[in-house]
Records
---
Amino acid sequence: MERIMTNRLDRGFERYSREFEDAALRVLRSGYYILGKECESFEEEFAAFTGTKYCAGTGNGLDALTLACRAVGIEKGDEVIVQGNTFIASVMGISIAGGTPVFAEPDKYYGIDPVSLEEHITKKTRAVMAVHLYGQPCDMGEIVRICKKHGLKLIEDCAQSHGAVFGNDKKITGSFGDIGCFSFYPSKNIGAFGDAGACVSNNEEYIKRIKMLRNYGSAVRYHNEEVGINSRLDEMQAALLKVRLSHADEMKEERQRAAVFYDENIDNKFIVKPEHRQDAEHVYHQYVIRCKKRDELQMYLKDKGIDTIIHYPIPPHLSGAYAYLGYKKGDLPISESFADEVLSIPMYTGITKEEQETVVKALNGFV
């Protein structure tokens, strides 16, 4: 068998190749490539998909986070609480907008722990950023309650949770807070063929401001109201994303079936499988295990032709980028232990049962 990669983007293309090719040719022949009908229709469709009223496409997920922070009014000196085990882009969205990130600990499902979140609220706290890491929603019932109690804005980082739902009413991530932020990086569950992102909201003014800021701070051409950026979802990516979106449910179900296979067949006392919230639906952007001997396990799998990725080996509070905040090793023991133990095993559209069986056999043989 050929090497088993952690992700295979080619299979996701091959399955719907004719649709992707038709969409690409439609854009190429249109003669219109920036902020046109493809972007507008994708924004409408994606808002409907998330159960929100409005959507603004952006150039990438980091810009979506940054513009969301600016839209809700984050300024210099404002604190925004975020979990310590997230990808650093979540944190950069806060600091690029001028805010100060404050790190809380995650719970056993890898989302921000509501208890730790509330413990970190100060007079300077203006917002919370909840990251639905690996595709599983955070405890949005408690998080929404805390934000309302303290008068805080709520931004959701949904870069890995396209289509994930929480609660009895089955609300989709991105629809709980003031603004939901998405990345469509190619490896995402709904992935573009380059960089792309979006913000969704039920607040029309937030989306209007994001659309203005993404276009050099201009809502009317050459009338620049603020210092904005250039972060526009181009017509090609919008058209290709519409194809992905039309198949979102079947791709989600495929990942969920693959996750069930891992859940039922991985059996090794040295490996911790992911836990699942009873009131949430996981979409498995990643299937993440933990192991005290993670580095040895990763090398063992590599020797057997199985690739893996660590999401993420250095927690943001210990990175060079955020050394100025003054955190030191030991300040966030749960986040740090996850960084030492987590390992993402192969999970992608088109993964075969044979590939999964090979991964499981290898994992169960690790001692």
---
Amino acid sequence: MFVDAILGGLSIGSVLLISALGLAIVFGLMGVINMAHGELMMLGAYTTFVVQNLFKGFGDGVFELYIFAALVASFAVTALVGLGLERGVVRYLYGRPLETLLATWGISLMLQQLVRSVNGVLAIGLVLFSALCFGGLWVLSKRPNWQRIRVPAIATLLPVSAGVAIAAGAIAANVGKLTMTKPWFGAQNVAVTAPGWLRGGMAIDNFQLPFTRLFIIGLTIACMAGLYWFLNRSTWGLRIRAVTQNRAMSSCLGIPTERVDALTFALGSGLAGLAGCGISLLGAVGPNTGQNYIVDTFMVVVVGGVGKLVGSVVAALMIGTANFLIGSGTFAVLFQSVPPLQEFFSFFATSSMAKVMVFSAIIVFLQVRPGGLFPQKGRSVDA
């Protein structure tokens, strides 16, 4: 029973780890508290749902491969959303953690409502507004007198773009009627069907480890390997590490720090999309899907050590295993011979109470080691 619980805990830990990878980049390396990280995971899950429905029309043989296209699409969609979020909001709030937290929390609420309400009319309006407003600003920014005309350009483009988008949406609503105004997803959860080769599980004695969990573990390992290679072997990865350690010196050496910020945030957002794609295989997807993981994800990053990917791996496996061992009642069975301990662990033998106990233990742990399992070291940290 204990071995079965350990295997179950490791599978849960892998889910936490894949959801924490993107946050470890954005929060750990950039110091940005992105409360919309869970909603980026949710967008990745909904992207998987859309790709699944598109592949259903190609027959069963092609449908079995949809998950690979969904991984690429989830990463691309959430990376683009993250890039827009960084360019439009976050870059103006660097060094101001409280404002960043509030802004990204507001964006998370907007993304939740967007998923509930989005339809053809709203989609047309958003695309037109973004193309006219941001496209116009990008074109005007190439002019040599951009700094002088920046404020009047924004004041003109915003209302004009909004007016054109609203007019186009009204025309589409009148032409399409019910088709264009019907919500695409709604407030209810939607189901993602795993390919046939991911159904069932691997039998280990009397325990069955689902193939979906094994797939998520493999996806997590692949993401970790790819992230390690990118940060340590690629040119842009080295630039990210340089800017993280000393932004002023990196700028003096010619590294485009603004592009590095945008790339880092887009990378972290894309990893959140991959996490959403993997998580969508475990259950129904809804507007609140990301909220189920955001707190645990932050705990993984903080306990592991800010900016330490190895720490995130250890913390995710520890937290996931502890949650499963306590919530499944395994500890209550193991301590049958010690009645006080059995009663104690029996009281916490539910998923919600197990989280209470684990979070309490984390609070105590952080009082002893506020820097986490693998704290940052060096003169830059002391400064």
---
Amino acid sequence: MTQQELKVLLIEDNPGDAFLIKFYLGESTSPVFHVSHSEDVKGGLDLLSKGNFDIILSDMNLPDSFGVETIKSILTKYPGNLVIVLTGLTDEEVGLETVRYGAQDFLVKGKFDGKVLISSIMFSFERFKLNKQIDRVSKQLDEENSRIDSIQKLLNAGYIEFDIQNNSVFRSDFLLKMIGMDESMKDAKLDEGFQAIINSDELKAKMQEAITVGKVGTHNFKRKDGREYRLTFECKNGKMLGVIQPL
């Protein structure tokens, strides 16, 4: 198994605190920490300009920065970094405030030993990685949904999904706009929305039959307001996936 190695930027002007933290991190063999040290924000930003770090440990009160402004100055210039704030015994409330500004966590000096320090760092590191993955997947889903919306607009066809077993129906945003339905009907019960369709019982019976035998096909239907549509569908895994287009 490859040994995990993490690069840490320590921004701390107190020699005693800096020595203790470097000592604690130096004792760790899994992971191995490689620590770079600066005594002020300016030096820390300079190190960040030269390379990436997995973790930033920063005191709040430094010769060139004070309080919440310290975390803001770091994350404004280098957003997307994992920052853990080091606070004094009287600064716990300010430490909480820094979390609201983007820090992952804060540690109170004098209240942690090597084991607690490393456990806190690794917990924050794993949580930070997970949040990054969630953000990445969320962005990919947003991009995919945007492409699907564009395709629906080009084809003037709205996506719909029926699940008879779970008595549910999903309608895309474009479909809701196209047929003039409220957003509350996006995820709804199967019967909801069929009231506006002429001979809705016939449509539901055909859907049930199609899903049961796994059909692919089309079905035209008419709404009570006179508008006509075509449902093109494919049935698989107990569901009907389809697109609806106006006629």
---
Amino acid sequence: MTDKRKRSEKFLNRELPVFAFFLLLSFVFWYLNELSKELQGTINYPVRYINPPKDRIVTGDLPEKLEMDLRGPGYSILKVKLSGSRAPVVIDFSKITPRRIPGTLPRYYLVSSGLISGFSKQLHADFDILAIHPDTLFFGYDKLVTRRLPVIPDLRLELEEGKKVIIVTNPDSITVTGPQHILDTLSGIPTKHRTFKRMNENFKSKIPIACPDYLQTLQKRVTVEVTITGKTTSFFGLKQTTE
């Protein structure tokens, strides 16, 4: 019985790798055969928006990616799904005619199905784009303006009892470009929040500007000068604690 069991184990050890190899080979041939057939799939593809009207900026929550329903050879769909770095498809506002939504604010919409032909040409696709989601893109145009806005230091200081503080920024204001409806609501541009503990001497510090991505400014940092003297007070929206 022992010899018979050993012979059986040797047979399995010898034949199992062969069986696994042919099983894998048959799967590969089956998969390649499936890829040659016409299949359907879905992919999320990056998109970039360019060329808004002169002196205008596009506003609204336009998606960074669009979902596309595809139909075509399986290998073609698999290739676009596996591509690591995808150059985004482009929506050129100078070449489309969006429709305006009635109302006081200038709002527009664009039907995604009208983009299929242009996307197919950009992708040099040998598959069909059946649909694009969301099926409608909503956005607005706003006037692009430039304003000079004050810098608002966002600091928290821990001071000794009986001290006051004066804060001065250099420069005290910066030039900002962005949508008019946003700049009209801003009283200034804050610095990034900083905390300074147990301060009892004057000091200077370079602090980055906390400027949102939809606003543009050449000024990235400002110098904040802090002078400590007298008794405790609050200046320029300063947050401070005393011990």
